[in-house]
Amino acid sequence: MIRKVIGGIVVGVGLLVAAKILGFPEIFQYMFFAYAMLGMLVYMLLDAPSVKPISGGKAIVALIVFYLILSVFYIGGASLLPQYDPEDEKGKIEKILAPKRKLTEQGKTEDLIAKVKALDEKAAALQERIKNLGKDVIQEGAAAAGAGVVETSTPSGGASVNDPKELERLGFEQWQLQECYNCHKLKGEGGKKRGPELDNIGSLMTVAEIKEKILEPQSFMAEGFEKEYEKKKMPDKYKELMEEKDVDVLAAWLGTMKNTSVNTPKPIKKK
């Protein structure tokens, strides 16, 4: 009997220490110890002498007394444990989360406002660039007329600008504005393999054909880009987005790209 008591205490203390080391709450540490003691009592009862059978009224009274003892034990033990009110706990959680939720929502709102502001600024900048581009073309035409210079056209019918530097500036501006670099590589920059490199496109297509390709993407197909052509990777939107003079400038600028060291795919007429 003494050995069982000592063994139960050792096991209980071991569980208590282990629970403490592992960081269990204090109430769980005591529960582990209590379970060890309960196991010890059960183990001791296995060797206890058998109780004489009782029947009749004595059996009923014994059953009621046993039930009352267990009820007092469980109810009393439970009353010692921390009591939790679900509504009270929900209130605590809400108090903890409310400030964080408020900060999060405030941060999202501020972020959205910042994004909208940035988009507004970008749209205003683009409008200003387009406006200035139109003014530049008009001013150049007026200056040429005042000087008695008539602006020439390319043999293919596309528009041209007399000053190569000005053509470079206006063409590159349209290239950037229309984000052609997303699909095409030019002068070693841009391109995501959705469209061919264009460094030698001026040797393979006339300015008029380049203009046609911009406005009607299905009119020509680059050799080796059959899948991209079938999937209509080049969007059919520039005839709505761009003014004709802007298409002319972009086509004329691309027509000057005649770097034969770059393997620009051969364009194939489709429509």
Automatic annotation (TrEMBL):
InterPro entries: Cyt_c-like_dom, Cyt_c-like_dom_sf
Occurrences of domain Cytochrome c (ranges): 141-258
Transmembrane segments: 29-48, 60-81
Keywords: Coiled coil, Heme, Iron, Membrane, Metal-binding, Transmembrane, Transmembrane helix
Gene3D superfamilies, per the entry: Cytochrome c-like domain
Single GO MF descriptor: metal ion binding
PROSITE patterns on file: CYTC
Pfam families found in the cross-reference section: Cytochrom_C
Coiled coil: 109-136
Protein name: C-type cytochrome
Record organism: Nitrospira tepida
